[in-house]
Amino acid sequence: MALIDRAAKQNLLQRARHAIARAIGAPPPHRESLPQFSEDFCAGAFVTLRMNGQLRGCIGYPESDLPLVEVVERCALSAAVSDPRFPPLSPGEWSGIDLEVSVLGPIERVDDIKDVIVGRHGLIVEFGRQRGLLLPQVATEWNWSAEELASQTCAKAGLPHDAWQKGAKLFKFEAEVFAEGDESFTGE
Length: 188
Fold this sequence. Notes:
Blueprint: H1 6-24, E1 45-51, E2 54-61, H2 68-81, E3 97-104, E4 108-109, E5 122-127, E6 130-134, H3 136-142, H4 146-156, E7 169-173, E8 175-179
Antiparallel strand pairs: 1-2, 1-3, 3-8, 4-7, 5-6, 5-7
Helix pairs in contact: 1-2
């Protein structure tokens, strides 16, 4: 899945880092001159923060009704200071943070779990007002099957693990995932 080019990826990562720096009072990093990213391109996205390889925050907005630039900046800010699993990021942690952005493709209903490809699809589960989402890379990191991914997505939504088999709606999506330091930014 290729939604955006190399320069746009760099632009989004820079915008995410600048949004966080402004929010926590850290010195903003040097901003490279990159082509302007289209403000008209709408997509959902998640921003993941890691410190020493460990999760330090992850917030997203799966809907595709806002400009991607705005979504990435908002999610970066929220991942840094509003993820309820972690205290707000401090200026002292700033230099140790690595950013990853996942740009979501179209969301499609899943009628058969066999249509979910581990590592390619992320999942969303909905039941009433409860909703949970796991990105495609999570199943790969944990070596889960499609069924385990569905069960863990239910758990994230606060539902029983088998809710996807008992009336909860299941949706799949692909994501274009890129991070600071990816080989794709050092040469193609």
